[in-house]
Amino acid sequence: MGVWTNIKNELRALADITNHIDTGDAALRIKNNIWFRGPNVWILAFSIVVASVGLNINSTAVIIGAMLISPLMGPIVGAGFALGTQDMPLLKQAGWNLLVMVIISLLASSLFFLISPLQLVNPTELEARTSPTIYDVLIALFGGLAGIFETSRKDRGTVLSGVAIATALMPPLCTAGYGLAHLNWHFFLGAMYLFTINGVFIALATYAVVRFLRFPQAQYLDEKKAKRQRALITVIVLAVLVPSVLTAIGLIQINNFERKVLAFVTENRTVGQHYIYDYDVDNHRQVEIFLTGDPLTEAERETFLASAERNGIPRDHIILNEHPLRSEPKDKEDEVQSLVQGLFEQSVLEIARKEERIRELEAQIRELKGDTTALTQEPAPEPAPGL
């Protein structure tokens, strides 16, 4: 018993944060970071352009550099703090400053993509910001938790820089600006959805920690007004929390469905005289499967759908899109040659894209190695006097 008690006491002391937290100083700094005036306007615009350049040239290093200098997190953390301390005036200020930041970000990124002469054939960094997953929710939630703990502790370090990179608030806004510049609503809506998810879960994480650490609540002179505003804030918290939980659950379901589809397609890539050459999963958990080869018989179709059900995919969630080869011998031979040629050209193009990406990464590695060598290299000794 004595050993177990000592272990519990040691673990309790290890996780204790009482002597490391300064809520008064943290509250002051959070409030100061909400304001968006003067230099912050220009810093945001410049960092947005830098991030847009990184997205335009598919450079992860440039995007990370832009996120390090961005002031975007201030109003989002401020909104979560205002909800946690039931400070309605501060919540209004945070919301207004966040709106101004979003508008400036969209304008700056849209202008850049309008005048940029570089048009990518395969904008992978942009595409990656249009389809949120459950991992984005987890990153925003735990990144927000780390950020507010870092803000609240007395001896602050470099955690906020890491949070700014991990939660990736800027790239979605830049991608939305790209969508506006090119009137591509898939890019715009998908990116804004990702930005909203990140912002909401960072604010919710801040709200939870502010309540957990018992930050001082806002004081009001009029008690009736205070009760009304606290009731309003409670409604706002619930209005944000409920859709956020439903969104997270929906993303988990979609992610699980995609794994089932992948297992099913892998198992049935070639069955009989047909071949699955592509598939597409939408946000409603419907999968469209593209097949080529001889038309499916009723028996083959039944076997195909039964296999899908074994993998947890309901029949009514499957859309079969068949592209059968023509029945004439000569035409069928031409069709096969055309299909093979198309697959070959697609493979060559994909290999070329991957080789280009490998060259870019190798160049970045060489650059980083050069910087490391320059930093670690000892200076040459100075010549002795008189020599």
What report would you give on this structure?
With 387 residues, this protein is of the alpha+beta class. It has a domain at 21-219: Glycerol uptake facilitator protein (Up-down Bundle). The protein contains 14 helices and 4 strands. It has helices at residues 2-15, 23-34, 39-56, 60-68, 73-85, 88-115, 124-127, 134-152, 159-167, 170-181, 185-212, 223-267, 298-310, 329-376; strands at 270-271, 274-281, 287-293, 318-324. It has a 4-stranded mixed beta sheet with strand order 1-2-3-4. A hairpin with a 5-residue loop joins β2 (274-281) and β3. α3 runs antiparallel to α4, α3 (39-56) packs across α10 and α11 crosses α12 (223-267). The chain starts with a helix and ends in an 11-residue tail after the last helix. The relative contact order is 0.08. The model is unreliable at 326-330 (pLDDT under 50).
Which CATH top level class of one domain fits? Mainly Alpha
Structural class: alpha+beta
Beta-strand content bin: 5-15%
CATH-wise, what's the superfamily of one domain? Glycerol uptake facilitator protein
Radius of gyration: 27 Å
